Amino acid sequence: MSNPPFDQVRLSDGTGIITRHTDFLSRYITPRHVDVWCPPEDRAGLATHYPVIYMQDGQNLFDPALSFIGVDWGMDEAMMRLIHEGRHSGAIIVGIWNSPLRLQEYMPQKPLSMRPGQPILNRFIDQTGGKPQSDGYLRFLVEELKPFIDAHYPALPDPAHTLIMGSSMGGLISLYALIEYPDVFGAAGCLSTHWPIGEEALVDALGAALPPPGRHRLYFDYGTETLDADYEPWQRRMDAWLRAAGYQEGQDWLTRKFEGAEHSERAWRERVHLPLAFLLD
Known about the structure:
- By secondary structure, the protein is α/β, with parallel strands linked by helices.
- It has a single domain (8-280), classed as Alpha/Beta hydrolase fold, catalytic domain (Rossmann fold, 3-Layer(aba) Sandwich).
- The protein has helices at 75-84, 102-106, 110-113, 118-128, 134-152, 169-180, 199-208, 232-245, 265-271, 273-280; strands at residues 8-11, 17-24, 32-38, 52-55, 92-96, 162-167, 187-191, 217-223, 253-258.
- It has a 9-stranded mixed sheet, sandwiched between helices.
- Helix 7 runs parallel beside helix 8.
- The protein is globular.
- The N and C termini lie far apart (37 Å).
């Protein structure tokens, strides 16, 4: 099994370069596209290496023609905003496209194998037609994709410069990735995290498994409209776990509420610069 170092390359309207690795192969999950955005080259010709942000639902990040609702996250514009404001030198953004098995790949697997999670697991299988496959998805990220990115891009490979981020189910899998691989991922951004799919069993299992504070940063947020209208009690429950674990709000953990914000790429586009600034600080 091998993947070509380069596939389709295109400019991103003056805001860096996007490379698409088509049907990236894996031993653990089905092939899917991977888009990699890099900041504009340093005009001084200096060798620059960057943090890397691994993001779920990669087809929704850069191109409105591919995005779920015709509005993309504008990740390249958000990163360039931080660069132009002098708040950061930039980061590589790796957008992993989702697959028809998105729910199974993004649902945290181990919490549902515990006794409190068994009813949730049974319901999940009934609703989606299969068991969670997130452990395999994370092995793809850690054992296959990250080594590829580190080998072919100017990446800073250490945990302090390796971030993971997503929204909704993508927020769940991003938190689960940091919990399962705390020596790989140093920060996780979880926007509009879809806690209700796992209820107390999922929130409590993830909260109890948080790595010790001091070496990681976590960002959570939620709106108040559409699906997000149900999230606040669950997020408050996770916030309690963070406090109990010793995380300091505003320092290594941040939760934000956005009045009137819906559950959509449009809403996440408006605020994604905030987790970027906090997690890359």
